[in-house]
Amino acid sequence: MQIEFKASKRDAQGTGASRRLRRAGQLPGIIYGGTGEAQPIVMDHNELYHLLRKEAFHASVLSIDVDGSKEIAVLRDTQWHPFKQQVLHIDFQRVAADQKMHLKVPLHFSGDDVSPAVKLGGCMISHVINEIDVQCLPKDLPEFVGVDLSALEVGQSVHVSQLVLPAGVELVQHGEGDPVVATAVQVKGAAAEGEGEAA
């Protein structure tokens, strides 16, 4: 899925110019990378603020209409005001259809409530990681990666190596090991009650 929005080229640079834009409800940003030069742009603040609240915006290939010409990019960085609900600046990186890109993708968990760990073991499922680093061609970028927890037993964990990635998507590993994605945690009290009855 591609998310589209409009932007305009921004000529005036510098802190004063950016402040004036923000006062007028505009959001300064930049598109960089790829074969083109870095292009300063300006967007409608409210439109981008609402897009940023959507999870898909952070893990999608974006189509930016800059004064009629399309730029294909991904979100790279967002600067927020320290205490106001205001975006101060936003960075996008161009992507090429034939080049693999590297991006964080959210994990969507399902099946916790029907897993043996929860239904029979009185456990809670702890989500340890909520996103993973992947690399793929722009056309293969998933909005999210699903994690099925319906078979999780007491004392078990799901590891990154067990995730089912869509075709064309590779995991980008950082460091050694096989990080835990989710784990079944015994709830205090549930085990103790059982032990008390047995005594």
TrEMBL record:
Coiled coil: none
Example of a GO cellular component annotation carried by this entry: cytosolic large ribosomal subunit
Keywords tagged on the record: Ribonucleoprotein, Ribosomal protein, RNA-binding, rRNA-binding
Superkingdom assignment: Bacteria
Biological role stated in the UniProt entry: This is one of the proteins that binds to the 5S RNA in the ribosome where it forms part of the central protuberance.
Family: Belongs to the bacterial ribosomal protein bL25 family. CTC subfamily.
UniProt protein name: Large ribosomal subunit protein bL25
